[in-house]
Amino acid sequence: MDGTSARGLRVNKAVLLLVVLLLAVxxxxxxxxxxxxxxxRALPALPAGTLAAARAEPSVVPPSEAGxxxxxxxxSATALPDxxxxxxxxxxPQVYTVVAGDTLTAIARRFGCDLQAxxxxxxxxxxNALRVGQQLRIPTADVVAIPxxxxxxxxxxxxxxxxxxxxxxxxxxxxGGYLAGYSEWVAGEQLSGPEIVDLVAHHxxxxxxxxxxxxxxxxxxxxxxxxxxxxxxxxxxxxxxxxGLHQQLAWVANELNRGYYxxxxxxxxxxxxxxxxxxxxxxxLNAATAGLYxxxxxxxxxxxxxxxxxxxxxxxxxTYRELFGPxxxxxxxxxxxxxVQSPELVLPWAFGENWFYTGGPHGAWNEGSAWAAVDxxxxxxxxxxxxxxxxxxxxxxxxxxxxxxxxxxxxxxGDGHEQTGWVLFYxxxxxxxxASAGSRLDQGDPIGHPSCEGGFSESSHLxxxxxxxxxxxAVDGPLPLILSGWRFYSDGTEYDxxxxxxxxxxxxxxxxxxxxxxxxxxx
Length: 523
Hints:
Elements: H1 13-23, E1 94-97, H2 104-111, H3 115-121, E2 135-138, H4 154-157, H5 168-175, H6 178-181, E3 183-186, E4 189-192, H7 193-204, H8 208-219, H9 230-233, H10 245-266, E5 271-272, E6 278-279, H11 287-297, H12 302-308, H13 316-324, E7 354-362, E8 373-378, E9 392-393, E10 398-404, E11 406-411, E12 422-429, E13 440-441, E14 446-448, E15 462-468, E16 471-472, E17 482-483, E18 486-490, E19 497-501, E20 504-507, H14 514-517, E21 518-520
Helix pairs in contact: 7-10, 8-13, 10-11
């Protein structure tokens, strides 16, 4: 599915819970305990310092590599924490006690065991009938070691500073492959192959060189002018996504993001292989490598996976190097330094207006990305998909670097690049009244009217998210989202969360209740 999974007003919590449980098959997020409004709730300590320059000059890592991948020190204490692996399972036999919200699929994935083996070990007649407090025996699994070399720096994975001067169209034309002359209709507009790559890079904030390397590895579209057979119909090598290039590439970007942002903090389960074997992620990976490890594991074949994440013939790294040279030359380290601080932001609507907090932390663009977005609806009664009369407004001063159907991207450092520094992303902005590209806005200036335009939406609302140096910034992460003093927390499930300011608390809900989820812009 293209676009975000944002909803201004959720139909009901049961439906959303079903969606989340279904998504758990593809990747589980580590649940976080719901915080309570107490004096102990404090912001994470960050070293003092000013906001880092938006476009850091790439610190080039010497291409002399001790191993097949990049030997980059991404675990430096000066960078945003990079490890998100779940603790390794204890020695078998193990007994797990079921808690509220568990599914058998999620439990199997958490412990890296085969689902059918889990059913058999517990003689479950109805695997869907788990009960809280039920004890499950976790079957033993063979653990297969996997490499820990870094395939890409994080700055090459995300659509960040390393891509400011990269032209997908110019590169594709120079290669002379099928991609350069390809086109298809996307949302009523005919786009060229390179334009589709750039659109997916923009929406998912995944680097174009990464997408091109995967495409070349799987189908040869970048350099081969005449692909045939499966290579012609499946430009990314997978048929589960369906559709043309845009739909397939969007699926790739979403799954890459899932692996990247799970490692960045949501927590990842071991890789599971046919036959019941598992592989634990090495603890010293960077997020980019974890994202690639997860993505290439989707084929389900361990031998093929080992080839793809290696450095020899048929590997991703070999293909990447043939197209772009050593990935180390694009390293910006650290991508998010310890001196980076969240910008001072206000609630993105007019002073004195009451809006309702309807969607807690969830995917910035589709569910694989960081839970960087929250949703709001103005107090105008039920709107359906009618555009609101109120304006969403600039939460900080900046320059509009992109304005298209439903979207406005506000660059806070004013350098004109969405890939650098802090960027605010507004989704579902109506065409009429939407801020135009190039506009310089002060804090509080109009951005656009909440509507259903852009992405996926069932009712008019504002979907609001942040990026820094191309990385989607989790609402409830090391650099938390704070708007007019309200800090936003996740309850561990997409769309569920709270906003807290002092002794006040609001809950993300589909209701329009001032004391439950109303937020007044009063500062």
